[in-house]
# Entry
Amino acid sequence: SATSASKMSILSKEIDMQKEKIRQLAAEWKAFASGGSLSEDDAIKTFEWLQSSKVGIKVISGDNAQAVSTIAKSAHIKDADKYVSLDGKTLDETYECAMKYTVFGRVSPEQKEILVKAFKNQGKTVGMTGDGVNDILALKRADCSIAVASGSDAARNVSHIVLLDNDFSHLPEVIAEGRRVVNNLQRTSSVFLVKT
# Structure
C-alpha cells in the first residue's frame, strides 16, 4: 500500500541518516584519537596491546551510544557491543551501569565523573583520556589523566600526562615506563626494609 511504501521510504532515509552520522562520528573519533597522527591500524594495535596487558577499556562519549559502539567494534575494543545511553539517567543509575557496559553514550560531564568513581570503587586503577572542558571532572577524579596537546587548556591543566604530539599510540610506552618505575620502587623499598 501507499502508506507502507511511505513508511519504508521514511525508514530508509532514517537509516541512511544514521549511517552518515556513524561515518561522521568515526571520522571525529579517529581525529580525536590521533590528533591527526594516529592511523586506524595504530589505534587498533594500541587497543589490542592494552587489552592483552589486561587493561580494560571503556568508551565514554556524548554521542549516540549505538554509533559509538559501532566505532568501538571497528577499533577491536572487546565487548563493544555492550552499550548504553545514559541520557536521562540519574547519577545513581549511571553508577549502577558502570560495570555492566563497555560503551557509554550521551554522557554528561557529571556522569563521566560518576563512571570514573564507580570504576575506582570496584578497585580499578583508572586512566582517563580527554580533550575538552566536558572531561575535566572525570580527568580530575581519575588516578591518571591523559590529555592531548591539541585539547582545551583546561583539560591539559588538570591532566597528569599531556601527549605533546597528540599520539595515543605512545600509551603502551607510557604504561611500560610507569610499571618500570613502580617495580623499581617496590624493589628499592624491599631492600631498604631489609637493611633497617
User: Anything to note?
Assistant: Strands lie at 59-60, 83-85, 103-105, 127-130, 144-148, 161-163. Residues 79 and 137 are 26 Å apart (CA to CA). The two ends are 89 Å apart (CA to CA). The helical segments are 2-34, 40-52, 65-74, 91-97, 109-121, 136-141, 153-158, 171-195.
